[in-house]
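Researcher: Please predict.
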Amino acid sequence: MLVAVAWGAVANAAPIVNGPTATAERHDVELGSDLRVTVQGFQSQKVTLAICGNEARRGSGDCNMTSSMAEGLAPDGMPTVITMRVAAPPTPCPCLVRVSSGLDEEVAVAPIRIIGHPIAPVVDSPNLNDPFVLTIRAEPASSGAMGWVRSSLGGPVPYRVTATVRNRSTVPLDVARLAGAAGRSGGGDLVSFTFGTPGTLQPGQTWTQIVAATLPAPSFGTMKWHVSATTTGAPVTATSTTDHRPWLLIVIAMILVIDLTWLVMRFLVRRHARRTSTSPLSDPTHDDGVAAEHGVADLAA
């Protein structure tokens, strides 16, 4: 029962989608007017707000950074209302308010329409970093006392494999189904596993899912885990490594080596003792007989 309960803990989990958000109090705004923006869900305690054109496809080059503002946020991701002045972006609309953390690790956008500002087709930049962030992490999963014994003897090892997809761009991103596998470096895959389909991720959203995977016996050494996914661009792959040592098997092997060494040494000592005991030089009766013969010879003389 212990094993069954423990294995249930590593069953495939439902995906989780979360991330920061930014909401403007109104969509149509005028240049120079004040705009209230509600920001929440950020892990960072400080963000930068900027008015951007071209959907900020080319990063800060599409934003009015001169009129941008840095603001602190409420703790624990609680909503924070920030009032900012609407300034003209350096590029045509579609426009938005871009809210980002210091290193752009978190981003949220609030679409707006600036009355009187020109509108033009969006232009992507080929020099921007890939907005699609994919990571994988594998951790040994608890499988009860018997499971621990099996894995420590080089048997199958259950793992919890976590895949994370983050959209750090300012536009929605479509992500296809994720597939992963694991195996030894330079060798073939030992196990494969499939995640769900993230679908459309809004700007700043993060999609996470945990699935179960079991490395078959014999399980030892360094394992390479990888997951791949595709968007509208080229496929993206993420990798991670784990190292498993079957310590119980290693200890048993060491004990066997020590026992075997002791038996060999004992055999050698006993064989040496037998040879010594059967040697003529070690026979006391041999010495007495020689002495008696010499004595008789002396009396005869």
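Model: The chain has three domains: 19-114, 130-245, 248-300.
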